[in-house]
Amino acid sequence: MRYYVLDPQGNRYGPADLPLLNLWVREGRIVPTTMLVSEATGQQISASQVPGLALHVAPGVTGHRPGALAQYGPPSGQMIQPGAFPQPGMMPGGSDITYSYWCSAISLLACLCLPLFGLIPAIAAYVFAHKAGVQGHPSAGTAKTFAVVGVVLNVLSAFAAAGLMKSLIGGLGGG
């Protein structure tokens, strides 16, 4: 028999057969209180009521981990409801991390020709990196570092440009 797994937000994953459900139990994605829906009957039951489901909960596990199912792609060979799993390769905060890297690149280019104007994309890069970090993206720390480097380089290039302008103006007036 196959079941859909319901997470606490009501998202539906599957259908999954008993071996796959037992794998998800071992990974901590299904606990005794996780709700399942029978593919055959549509009846909703708790995981503890499914015959053959090996619910040996690890010590310290008290309930369903938020987002535990959503972080995995669809299992191979399974019929999946459209939209039940994220697209392959997608990570939480993926678009924010991409925006962060683009803003950092623009900021670093701007520090070469438009000092201080590069601060705007550098600050935006940091904001996007922070949002990606809150969503759990593993590269958020690196993106924040690039954003901070963009801020520092823009400030330094602004001081360098100001010094160059001062020496040029001073050189014109003193000669």
Automatic annotation (TrEMBL):
Domain of life: Bacteria
Keyword list, A-Z: Membrane, Transmembrane, Transmembrane helix
Transmembrane segments: 99-129, 141-165
The keyword Transmembrane helix is assigned to this record: yes
Keyword Transmembrane attached: yes
Protein name in UniProt: DUF4190 domain-containing protein
Organism of origin: Fimbriimonas ginsengisoli
